[in-house]
From TrEMBL:
<keyword id="KW-0503">Monooxygenase</keyword>
<keyword id="KW-0560">Oxidoreductase</keyword>
<protein>
    <submittedName>
        <fullName>Putative cytochrome P450 monooxygenase</fullName>
        <ecNumber>1.14.-.-</ecNumber>
    </submittedName>
</protein>
<dbReference type="GO" id="GO:0004497">
    <property type="term" value="F:monooxygenase activity"/>
</dbReference>
């Protein structure tokens, strides 16, 4: 439930610590993987089955 009230703070904290990498935020119904822009080209080139 922390994400509901502090989601922006959690995203900002994760970005400041791991902005050139990736980090995971766990909510009550999902896990969110936040990925740096540096990996976007690699991810876009993968087939959907690999993601």
């Amino acid at each position: 439930m922390r994400f509901v009230t502090q989601g922006l703070e959690m995203m900002s904290e994760g970005y400041s610590k791991w902005k050139d990498s990736m980090f995971k935020i766990t909510t009550h119904d999902a896990d969110w993987l936040v990925v740096s822009k540096r990996y976007l080209a690699d991810l876009q080139s993968l087939p959907a089955e690999r993601l």
